Amino acid sequence: MGMTKDNVIGFVLAVSSSIFIGSSFIIKKMGLLRAAGNGKRAATGGHSYLTEPFWWAGMISMIVGEIANFAAYAFAPAILVTPLGALSIIFSSVLAQFILHEKLHMFGKLGCALCVVGSITIVLHAPHERDIHSVKEIWGLATEPGFIFYAIICVALICILIFRYAPTHGQKYIVVYIGICSLTGSLTVMCVKAVGMALKLTFEGNNQFKYYQTWLFTLAVVGCCLMQINYLNKALDIFNTNVVSPVYYVMFTTLTIVASIIMFKDWDNSSAQQIATELCGFVTILSGTFLLHKTKDMGNPPPEVSNISKSSEDPPEI
């Protein structure tokens, strides 16, 4: 399927977003490492990282990236924008090798290449953006039974992970913290798309902020983003960056695509061939992230065990 002008704009914004977000993982990790030596770690409830300039620089980079990502959703469908987050994995993995000295094996580099190939495949076959003329249309999509059921399932799983599993298993199983971020993120993206479309229509002269639905979507975005930041900090403080980035990407992207298909019906006007090609591209990206994860420690010397860093060096359980 050919790229429309809006899809091209969304693509450029999504790539820019990946560069800033990929950098933010590394810069924030540097701040968290410095904070761990000066106070209580973020994973155990500490907030000493708030005094670290590196952490704030990472936050600024992430905010810039999220703004670009926010804008991308106003122009292109989530099934195009979200998979391009794989580029942030590549960028953070390369920086982690040179700055944090987290070695990237040859097969990890192959994983990066697979991510690029999969991203290109999805970009070239992405569906056109759905025509939206009012935020009320998005509200109508969000209140259909299918998406309401999906949202209820997500909220239930988030509550179970936070109150049942995070206190006892959060520091051992990476899927706990990343699961909370990903489930919340899939709902965040739907709300971000709604607010982005509202801003786009408003700038075109059709004010959407006179509707209460726009403000509800905005509040949901703020609340969900704060939750994601909190639990992403915990994951980054405990686990290797080359693990957090791909696992978060896989879970977040999968759930976001599912949410977008349910809410915006992205595949309604796509042929079976186009859908199959997009799925192949997505599976290629998943294969790349799998390689990045499985080869994260290959070629690394055994870590020295110390009382301070032992918990962060233990291999995480998925």
TrEMBL record:
Residues 297-318 are annotated as: Disordered. GO terms for cellular component: early endosome; plasma membrane. GO terms for molecular function: magnesium ion transmembrane transporter activity. It comes from the Eukaryota. The chain crosses the membrane at residues 7-27, 54-72, 79-100, 147-167, 173-199, 211-231, 243-263, 275-293. Pfam families: Mg_trans_NIPA. It is a multi-pass membrane protein. It is found in: Cell membrane; Early endosome. Keywords: Cell membrane, Endosome, Ion transport, Magnesium, Membrane, Transmembrane, Transmembrane helix, Transport. Its main location: membrane. SUPFAM superfamilies: Multidrug resistance efflux transporter EmrE. InterPro entries: EmrE-like, Mg_trans_NIPA. Acts as a Mg(2+) transporter. Can also transport other divalent cations such as Fe(2+), Sr(2+), Ba(2+), Mn(2+) and Co(2+) but to a much less extent than Mg(2+). Homodimer. Belongs to the NIPA (TC 2.A.7) family. This is Probable magnesium transporter. It comes from Arachis hypogaea (Peanut). The lineage of its organism: Eukaryota, Viridiplantae, Streptophyta, Embryophyta, Tracheophyta.
